[in-house]
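Re: that chain you flagged

S.,

Sorry for the slow reply, it's been a week of failed gels. I finally had a moment to sit down with the sequence you sent. For the record, here it is as I used it:
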Amino acid sequence: MAEQDSRARKFSDRRLGSSWYEWDGDIESHESALNESPLLYFLLLFFLLVVVTQVLVLDAWVLTQFVFSSWPIATVAVILVIGAPLVVWWHAYLFCLLAVWSRSRYLAFPWFSRWLTLQVPFLSVCAKPFGVSRDRISSSCIAITNTLARLQLRTLSAVRPLILLPRCIRPDVIREVRRLGEEWECPVAVVGANRLAREKVREFRPTAILAVACERDLVSGLYDFGHKMPILVQANTRPTGPCVGATIDLDQIRIALQDIYGLAQEADCPRVKAPKCVSEAD
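Prediction finished late last night. Pasting the structure tokens below so you have them in one place:
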């Protein structure tokens, strides 16, 4: 009997593209291709942290001055409960910003991937009144995680990548990606759900992943797996809308593969062949 995936108990299975069920079908207003810089995400997160800090500091002042003014222990507890998360959040923000700016692999902590993607829904709600879409924020977040993933590749002990593609990619493009996979001796898997992606990760046991999907699915996948291994992601292009007829820039896939093998080679990381070269579509 196959070993049960413990993550299946923590995360409900989600089909790739399920986040697009509410799409209104308007091609004109649809953002079919995005390439945001990390600046958008960092600016939005900075302003959000400033607002949250001001609100929490005001709450702490009211509680300590008017509610628990005669209870020293309660006053200390309020300061710790409100102050500790703020200190941690600001330090995480500054360390992440410094890692991206300095390109230091020593500051590219694996948990940054989960921390960054966790905040995308909150940032999208705050930015929506200003006309900034969730996909633009996700694209900016992806630019940050790709930078961190390239830094983390230098710390690998072995090179064994896996390419994950969604079912919405055009068949001819999938064939081209498989040719690239054969050229680099890198397995390629086409998956349609989180459960299948987890199965492919267990099957091929990669040390790095190159994932292709829309921004929404990439952010979800980074939250689930980004803290476990370096994941380079490439957002697809959706000229006819989400979940059908999507395509990708093959040159970007080739560059990502070169980065995976090249950066790991710089760190004297041995190249390990995967159990298979190419997998069939699921």
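What I noticed first: The radius of gyration is 21 Å.

Talk soon,
D.
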